[in-house]
Design brief:
This protein is mainly beta. It has no helices and six strands. The protein has a single domain, classed as Immunoglobulins (Immunoglobulin-like). The strands form two sheets. Strands 1-2-5 form a three-stranded antiparallel sheet, with no helix packed on it.
Length: 86
C-alpha cells in the first residue's frame, strides 16, 4: 500500500555549478519535507533517447557530475527524487 504521507517533497533548487564540453556538475538542496529519514537520491538522466538511473545512497551528497554528454546542439533532461525510510 502506498502512503502519500511518507513521500518526501522534491529536492529544491537545482543549479549547474560547472560545465565542460562533455560534463555538467549539478547541485541541489534537500527536500523541505523529508517525511522520514533521508537515505539519498535517485537521479534520472534522459539523453540520446536513453534513460540512465543513478542511485546516490549518501544522504549528505547534494552534488553530482554528469559525464559523457555532447554539449553542442544536444538536449538532456535531469530528474531528481529523494529517498526516505519511514
Amino acid at each position: 500500500m502506498f502512503d502519500v504521507c511518507a513521500v518526501p517533497s522534491s529536492p529544491r533548487i537545482m543549479h549547474i555549478l560547472s560545465r565542460s564540453g562533455t560534463a555538467v556538475m549539478i547541485k541541489w538542496a534537500e527536500p523541505e519535507w523529508k517525511n522520514g529519514k533521508l537515505l539519498g537520491y535517485q537521479l534520472y538522466i534522459l539523453y540520446n533517447e536513453q534513460k540512465t538511473s543513478i542511485n546516490i545512497t549518501d544522504d549528505l551528497t547534494n552534488i553530482y557530475q554528469i559525464t559523457g554528454l555532447c554539449m553542442l546542439f544536444c538536449f538532456f533532461f535531469v530528474y531528481l527524487f529523494a529517498s526516505v525510510s519511514v
